[in-house]
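Supplementary Data S3. Sequence and structure tokens for construct A.
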Amino acid sequence: MRVLAAMSGGVDSAVAAARAVDAGHDVVGVHLALSAQPGTLRTGSRGCCTIEDSHDARRAADILGIPFYIWDFAERFTEEVVETFVGEYAAGRTPNPCVTCNEKIKFEALLEKALALGFDAVATGHYARLATVDGELELRRSADEGKDQSYVLASLQPEQLRHAMFPLGDSWKSDVRAEAEQRGLSVARKPDSHDICFIPDGDTKKFLEKRLGERPGELVDAETGAVLGHHTGVHGFTVGQRKGLGIDAPAADGRPRYVLSLEPVSGTVKVGSSADLGVQAIDADRAIWPSGRPLDGPTECTVQVRAHGGIADAVAEADEDGRVSIQLREPLRGVAPGQVVVLYRQDDQAGDLVLGSAKISGTR
């Protein structure tokens, strides 16, 4: 097959490209330039898509002996990922930009261009597995559950998965680094990227304030209705947040307060105790079924509401309009509208199967 290997400049994508070459595919490497003004150097694990990253990707491609190109996707990335991120926060929701990037950039924009140029598949360094069961393609967790990235891929459509390759799905990260060393790849010990790639300093609040300005409002006790303080915008808070609330007086019982809900129209941030954070039920919409099979009636499953955590057993039911109702077997904390909920079915033989994903619209 003709395979386009997306090479970020990190160790995972470099080894994924190498394995595609070893498998006998005709591989071409491509680095996506996602920033209109990329930084020159990374700072440890902060940020990505720098000029340094593009050079690292090119050096890896040279060692593998494959053609290499840089494609400018900065305008589409800004529109689809960055502006969506800002808009969601302005609306009082908590988005995951990595989910949006995989859906809209790597497996929509990049895949569309790859197919138009005659490629059969796009290979990435994601830790996830694809399995064919009874003739149907399924997305599953990776062997290394600590690195599993099926959560951020669960918004892909069946047709997109049919043109995807995840060569690292059966591997552990330590083995991938060792393999990179053996292959002479200079990125073998390069730190993984963390946080949000377009906010390299990690200060999300400052990033949002620069784009949204000040939108003053009140911090209100959810139980008594008492005004406890003021803030410069609901976009500076997330459900479950404890630190940086700007409330001087402690709670009556002396225990910490947490953000319970955000009301962007009124500018109200409601706070309360940790006990008030527990969520028993989740409502979601815009469901996507990667295997092409929607839920058929109430379904026992495991749900995950964050890329690395927020997992609970549940019963989920979906309607034909893409709405999903989830009843949790045990409460989850810090669940916010705008987050993606991913539904899994446990399967010990082939790894947990991704049933589907949906955007959280409310909690109960």
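Construct B, processed identically:
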Amino acid sequence: MTASKIALVTGAARGQGAAIVRRLLDDGFRVAAADVLTDELAAGTADLGPEVLPLALDVTSAADWTAAVARTAKAFGGLTALVNNAGVLHRAAVADETEEAFERSWRINCLGPFLGVQAALAQLRTGTGASVVNTCSTGAVRPFPQHAAYGTAKWGLRGLTQILAAELAPDIRVNAVLPGPIATPMLDSTTQSRLAERIPAGRLGVPGDVADAVAFLVSEHASFITGAELVVDGGQSLTIG
């Protein structure tokens, strides 16, 4: 293991986050795996050894973020990569949307990554090759009906990624992955089947597809890439309707 490669990954208990943790571990990172789902996180990381540090983290809490970054730095000696993967998918027609649900989507999907960057900034600036990857969505490329809360939050995160990339260069690279339909618990089986029929690639994505994209963006192979948006959707964005 190389001590200089240290990542903090949110939403790490399952799905894409769990896949990202394992992929970065394979690439020689030490990984702080963070999630609000602490029981699932503990079970999912139990076999990964001392190079993975499970952390309880509510991404909407600045205090939680401060504690998570401090624990990561204490355990591993620093932080070189932040992967803002935590998110929630929320659907509702505009007429049925509530103030509470709309705000919750924004707090988790957009405010959370902002608080994470703020909390991690000092640690990221002390290392070399530091990077941030934000998980956006194809919902930030095209409009999906009944996704006002989720879609606007992801559009906001897409804009935040661009602003951070411009502001934090050259010390910290900031990029985004924009997954399309990925086979995770966020999509029920009926939705997965419906979406798979319309993907040009002929299948849904799997968490490893997103993990591979993240691994590239935090690696030295992407050292000249910042402010980029890597769409991982099997061609979904090419379709109409």
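The CA atoms of residues 68 and 74 lie 10 Å apart. The helical segments are 15-26, 38-45, 62-76, 99-126, 148-168, 189-196, 207-217.
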